[in-house]
Amino acid sequence: MNSLQAPRAVLMVRPHQFTPNAETAADNAFQTDPKRGNTSAHALAEFDGAVARLRAHGVRVHVFDDTGAQTPDSVFPNNWISTHSGGQVALYPMYAPSRRRERRADVLDMLKVRYRVENIIDYSGLEQDDLFLEGTGAMVLDHIGRIAYTAKSNRADPLILERFATHFSYEPIMFDAVDPEGRAIYHTNVLMCVATNFALIGLSLISDPDRRATVVRRLEETGRDVIELSFDQIASFAGNAIELTGSNGHILVLSTTALNSLNADQKARIERHATLVPVDVPTIEHAGGSARCMIASIHLTARPRAGEK
After folding, report:
1. Is residue 182 packed enough to be buried (19+ CB in 10 Å), middle (13-18) or exposed (0-12)?
2. pLDDT in tens, 222-265
3. Which one of 19, 69, 181, 288 has the minimum C-beta count within 10 Å?
4. Share in percent of the chain as helix, strand, coil (round to 5)
5. What is the DSSP-derived secondary structure letter of residue 274?
């Protein structure tokens, strides 16, 4: 089974002080007001339920606690770090100042101990030049075809994308994507998900027909069944899913909100390739991200542990 696209291990950050981030609301149209008390407690319970669900399916989950009140989006670590085969790690420049505080050395220390890390490429200093590329939120990576799909936004600068593509040997495919109100889609990973044998994508939101055709062509050339999502499904976070490898094969992790938005044909096409694994995170979704945003996938080679060969 090819698990290059679908890793067996992930990193997640438990949010003890969760709240939608007022600093990011201006360009994240997916953020909404929770309109209920104990938001932090609800988010914490949802997070723990999601971790338990992944572990029940055989995914190795490394959990770090965030107890600070100055990092409201810490539950979304995929934006500041990514890992890659060959022992490569990247750190990214973040658009909102509050999000820059999410980067943490203890995560890197754990990765070095538990996995083979050969090189860390740190782009975060480019924040001083107002250049941003928010990790696998800004980019949706095809690890098999070596393609970095990227929607243009405040959080995805073409200059850094080119640097990333050069460093990690990816083909960058950048395009404009807007919602029905004409607002830029803030992160590519709410627009699309690339799995081993299929892709979920809101094609109608890619505004240029030629670029839209290019995206479809590259997905099909790399062997994907392209499953189109409507804007309503994108708004329900159906594109914000991630394929992982569990104890019984590939799983597609998505929120219950996302799952409930899919029709029977879409579910059947996905289930030809992966088991649908919903996690219930409605409070966390008020922050403008969903299941995929909560998961930083680990594509590194694990070091043998005591008693293992």
Report:
1. exposed
2. 999 999 999 999 999 999 999 999 999 999 999 999 999 999 99
3. 181
4. 35, 25, 40
5. S
Would you state the structure tokens that stand for residue 59, as one six-digit string? 């995914």
| Whole-number Å distance between alpha carbons of 98 and 60 | 29
Phi-psi label, residue 182: left if phi above 0, alpha if psi -120 to 50, beta otherwise: left
CA of residue 272 relative to chain centroid, distance:
22
Do the beta carbons of residue 255 and residue 237 sit within 8 Å?
yes
Task: Specify whether the CB–CB gap between 144 and 120 falls below 8 A.
Answer: no
In a 10 Å sphere around its CB, with 0-12 CB exposed, 13-18 middle and 19+ buried, how is residue 60 labelled? middle
How are beta strands 9-15 and 225-228 bridged, if at all?
unpaired
All residues at 6 or more sequence positions from 208 whose CB lies less than 8 Å from its CB, including other chains? 175, 176
In tens, the pLDDT along 31-54 reads: 566 766 668 889 999 999 999 999
**DSSP secondary-structure letter at 156?**
B
Query: Which residues 6+ apart lie within 8 Å of 191 measured at CB?
Result: 140, 151, 177, 185, 201, 202, 205, 234, 239
Return the C-alpha torsion angle 37, 42, 43, 46, nearest 10: -160
Quote the DSSP letter at residue 301.
Answer: P
Q: Contact 50/291 with Cβ under 8 angstroms?
A: yes
CB 29 within 8 A of CB 186: yes
Strands across the sheet containing 192-194: 192-194, 198-201, 225-228
Distance CA 189, CA 292 (A): 8
| DSSP structure class, residue 95 | S
The answer to whether the predicted template modeling score (pTM) of the entire model surpasses 0.85 is yes
| Interatomic CA distance for residues 156 and 174, integer angstroms | 9
